[in-house]
Every structure is written in C-alpha cells, then in structure tokens.
Amino acid sequence: MEIIHDVQAFQQRMLAERQQGKKISFVPTMGFLHQGHLSLLEEGRGRGDLLVLSIFVNPTQFGPNEDFDSYPRALQRDAELAAKTGVDILFAPEADAMYPQGSATTVQVTGLSEGLCGASRPGHFDGVTTVVNKLFNLVQPHVALFGMKDFQQLAVIRKMVSDLNMPITILGMPIVREPDGLAMSSRNTYLSDDLRRQGLSLIASIRSVCESAVAGQRDAATLIAQARDIISAQPDARIDYIQICHDETLQDLEQVDEHAVILLAVRFSTTRLIDNHYLLQPVRA
Ligand SMILES: Nc1ncnc2c1ncn2[C@@H]1O[C@H](COP(=O)(O)OP(=O)(O)OP(=O)(O)O)[C@@H](O)[C@H]1O
Ligand SMILES: CC(C)(CO)[C@@H](O)C(=O)[O-]
Ligand code: BAL
C-alpha cells in the first residue's frame, strides 16, 4: 500500500491509474478506523481494481465549539489496518493543502441538509459536501462507499451526485455494531464505561419501537414518545432529536410505512451519538 500526503502528487497518480483503465473504488473517512470503516473497504475491494482510502479530519465540517481538536487520530495504526484490508492507496492530506489560502468555493445541498443533524450542526453538511466534492474530483472514482450510520450524510451525498451529474455510483452500507448493539463510531472512544452503558439506550429504543411498529403501531408520534421515554431514563442523556422520516426526502412522517426510518441524535455528556433504523425491518443487533 502506498501512502500519499501531497495533493498534486495524488491527483497525478489517480489520473495515471484511470488512464490505465482501472476501475476505482473510493472510501472517504476521517480515520481512527474501526470495523464499520473496514466493512466499506471490504465491499469496495470487490467492486474495483484499485481501492483508495482517504483519511482527512475535515476542519470545515466541524462547528467552532465542536471536537475538531480532540477528534481521535491514529494514522500509523490506520495505515496498518488499511494495508491488511487490501487498500492500494491511502491519501492523507494536510488541511492547508486541501484548503489553500484564498479557497472560496463551497458546495451546498439545500433542503436535505437543513434538518436533523444539519439543524443542530449548522454548516456541517456544507463542509461535508465541499470536501467530498473535492475528494471526488481528485480521485474520480467509479464507485464510492458510505455508511448508513450517517444516514443523512448518505442522502445528501446521493443528492449532490445526482444534481451535479457526477458519474459515480454511491453505495450505502449497513451499520456495523458492537456485539451489544452500539453502532461503531470513532467517537465511541470518548465514552466512559458508564456513558457507554447509557449509550446502549439508543439501540434499546430502536428495538422497542421497531417491535411496536411491526406489531401494528404506525403512529409516528407515539413511537417517538416511546423512544424518548427509554432514552430520557438515562441520567446523562440530552436528546438532540428523535424523528421518524421518509428515507429519501427526510421529511417527517406521521404514519409509518416501508420508507420510515427512525433517526436519533443524543448527547451523553459531551459525546454526541447518532443511530437510525428502518422501522419495519428486523433489528439484527
Ligand atoms: N458503524 C458503522 N457502520 C458502517 N459504516 C460506518 C460506521 N461508522 C462509520 N461509518 C462510515 O464510515 C465513513 C467514515 O466515517 P467517519 O470516519 O466519520 O467514522 P465515524 O466512526 O462515523 O466517526 P464519527 O464518530 O466521527 O461519526 C462514513 O461513510 C460513515 O458512515
Ligand atoms: C464523508 C467524510 C469523510 C467527509 O469528511 C466524513 O463526513 C465522514 O467520515 O463521514
Ligand atoms: N461521520 C460524520 C462526520 C462528522 O460527524 O463530522
């Protein structure tokens, strides 16, 4: 596996690979790799001839009071895991090379990026779509893989790709969970044992509302109240949002149907966890 830090060198290398007719799979991440990331890489490996991973903690998607400085970073360990998983090229640029002085262009997906996490993290998705657009231009992948854990991010990226006629197939991959059901996330490392236990209320509430929905309760407000009760019982939980939305439009639904997804964001002390699930699909965790 080759590690490239320099933006221009990386772009030249990717152009050369494409000219050789390689089919390119791309997985963008912020690093501190876990099995969720590796599942994207494993799928990507089978989808192309060249597997490219980016690790870049993108400053423009963090708010001024968010965790950019403390975000976990472990490039050496990540590189070892990536190499074992079959990554061909790891791109790990510096922030000032990605955003040289004078950078003035952003990409914004209106509508879809405004509710849910967009409402509690103003500007977050503009940072995501801008950096993903830049990465897509550098890599020019055939296929790019994203996790469904970041459900709104996936919807926003699909919309950007469609609206801007990008010739890229976007694959959304299932959420990988710890054995006890907690969705894997780099930010889980912030949690004390006690907060981690409290964090399990996300999957507990998902299980409970999915059971009710499958048993016939289709009223979204009732199901949201049920989830809220389970999570609010945790002493350190501060609910950011619990919503039941249509999977493509992300509009709130009043009645549950096969498009209905429950989306949750909850702070446990300073750590913000997100999770989601299709209400009428079985919970495997
Ligand atoms: N548990 C998971 N299962 C499947 N995909 C995941 C999981 N966690 C993250 N991903 C995906 O990996 C990609 C990179 O995500 P990122 O590097 O932000 O990791 P993360 O663990 O989600 O970190 P964070 O704690 O910042 O949310 C995204 O497409 C994200 O959806
Ligand atoms: C897509 C992404 C790599 C853009 O920085 C990030 O938002 C992430 O890791 O999900
Ligand atoms: N996984 C999404 C990146 C973020 O929370 O900033």
Structure description:
The chain has helices at residues 7-19, 35-47, 75-84, 95-98, 116-120, 124-139, 151-163, 193-199, 201-214, 220-232; strands spanning 2-4, 24-29, 50-55, 89-91, 143-147, 169-173, 237-246, 260-268, 271-278. By secondary structure, the protein is α/β, with parallel strands linked by helices. It has two domains: 2-173, 3-Layer(aba) Sandwich (Rossmann fold); 186-275, 2-Layer Sandwich (Pantoate--beta-alanine Ligase, Chain: A,domain 2). Helix 6 packs across helix 7 (151-163). It starts with a strand and ends in a 7-residue tail after the last strand. The model has no long low-confidence stretch (mean pLDDT 98). Bound molecules: adenosine-5'-triphosphate (ATP), pantoate and beta-alanine.
The average pLDDT score comes to: 98
Query: Would you identify the regions where 5 or more consecutive residues have pLDDT less than 50?
Result: none
Oligomer: single chain
For the record, the count of structural domains works out to 2
Helix residue percentage: 25-40%
* Helix count, DSSP H or I runs of 4 or more residues: 10
Task: Determine the strand fraction and express it as a percent band.
Answer: 15-25%
Structural class: alpha/beta
The count of strands amounts to: 9
Identify every distinct bound molecule in the structure, by name, code or SMILES.
adenosine-5'-triphosphate, pantoate, beta-alanine
The radius of gyration computed from the alpha-carbon positions, rounded to a whole number of angstroms, is 19 Å
What is the CATH homologous superfamily assignment of the largest domain?
HUPs
Spatial arrangement of strands, main beta sheet: 1-4-3-2-5-6
Mass-distribution shape? globular
Given this structure, which CATH class of the largest domain is correct?
A: Alpha Beta
CATH topology of the largest domain: Rossmann fold
Order of helices and strands: EHEHEHEHHHEHEHHHEEE
For the sheet with most strands, the description reads: 6 strands, parallel
Pathway: Cofactor biosynthesis; (R)-pantothenate biosynthesis; (R)-pantothenate from (R)-pantoate and beta-alanine: step 1/1
Function: Catalyzes the condensation of pantoate with beta-alanine in an ATP-dependent reaction via a pantoyl-adenylate intermediate.
GO molecular function: ATP binding; pantoate-beta-alanine ligase activity
Catalytic activity: (R)-pantoate + beta-alanine + ATP = (R)-pantothenate + AMP + diphosphate + H(+)
